[in-house]
């Protein structure tokens, strides 16, 4: 099978619409109906919900990522997503987790942070796609025995989309990346 990857000249939010169009197209071709999308504000997830049908899991930053005790996802945005049937999830980030607390306190780096930085060699969004797939799998919100589409970006919006089979954090190396749908050219 020959399948072309869409490479963006620059990373970032301006690629969001194109990524989501390509996601819709590939999901239809492969019959995929499970989607996980990184969406801090809910904006990217809301747009995705207008473009595809199926199980959409919107993953936002954990509470305290920016401000102690605070979620960045506002209640209004969360409610708009829930109204459209989107699952909204916030939890510990799979590819930093408690390791981030250890390196913040003591310096140095933990193995899981090295994994994250290695995935970022492809793109920020590539790391995010893997991370949110693990998080959504551990929350029981997406299957681990079939292909899903995972969507991430560079700080805001989407610039990377992968077809992958998720895995739980306790069997992380079972996760399989089948296809890159789109990514920024590093
Ligand atoms: C759990 C999680 C981890 C993220 N990690 C990174 C990261 O390491 N690097 C990065 O550039 N963006 C990161 N992001 C941002 C996302 O890739 C994406 O661009 C953003 O969530 C889109 O939010 P929006 O819908 O509010 O624009 C992360 C987002 C989430 C929810």
TrEMBL record:
Pyruvate kinase C-terminal domain spans which residues?
17-162
Q: Pfam families given for it?
A: PK_C
Record SUPFAM superfamilies: PK C-terminal domain-like
Highest taxon in the source lineage:
Archaea
Q: What is this protein called?
A: Pyruvate kinase C-terminal domain-containing protein
